[in-house]
Amino acid sequence: MDLQDPVIRSMASEQVKWTTITRTCGELSVSRAIGDRDFKGFTRRRMEAGTRGVPPENPALFLWPQNHSGEFYDDLLVAHPDFHEEEITDEDQFLLLACDGLWDVLSHGDAVKHTLELLDQGLCAQGAAQQLCELATRLGTSDNVTVIIVSLHHHPPSPLMPRRAA
Fold first, then answer.
1. Which segments cross the bilayer (predicted)?
2. Three-state SS sequence of the chain
């Protein structure tokens, strides 16, 4: 769905309702194609278009939005990724990729700020990524943490940690 298209955006605003639950059924915070089979298979072999999905055997395990029937018209997770393109400019310094273990405890702005500070201190991308993982752990993340920083400018390799003056 291209929400940049004004017609689609207008039509979507009539259909889309926002909730404060940021996880699939209050449990899964990211969508992925592999695994998480509890969130798939709600639509056992549809015989005809529009057949309602079958809710899980124990719907009490899921945190449903208020007034939700617990029935779905399709699987909750799909293997079709969303893509977003950005033109990289000379001002762009790095690409920060991380899983929800980081984003659960650090805002996007704070993550960028910390990354800039770490790189300015002389750490290489790998060292800065390692430090962000450790920061997420100190901030109390309860999930696994993966961080990858891709430098968009060619820099000679540097040590993981800057050298201290003697």
1. none
2. CCCCCHHHHHHHHHHCCCCCCCCECCCECCCCCCCCHHHCCCCCCCCCCCCCCCCCCCHHHCCCCCCCCCCCCCCCCCCCCCCCCCCCCCCCCEEEEECHHHHCCCCHHHHHHHHHHHHHCCCCHHHHHHHHHHHHHHCCCCCCCCEEEEECCCCCCCCCCCCCCC
- Residue 33: other Cβ atoms inside 10 A: 11
Residue written as tokens 């899983």? 99
From first to last of the 166 residues of the chain, give the pLDDT tens digit: 566 777 766 666 555 555 555 566 666 666 555 556 666 655 543 434 444 444 445 554 556 667 766 666 666 666 666 778 889 888 899 999 998 889 989 999 999 999 999 999 999 999 999 999 999 999 999 888 999 999 987 655 555 555 455 4
pTM for the full predicted model: 0.56
Answer yes or no: are the C-beta atoms of 26 and 72 closer than 8 Å: no
**Torsion angles phi and psi, residue 49, rounded to 5:** -60, 140
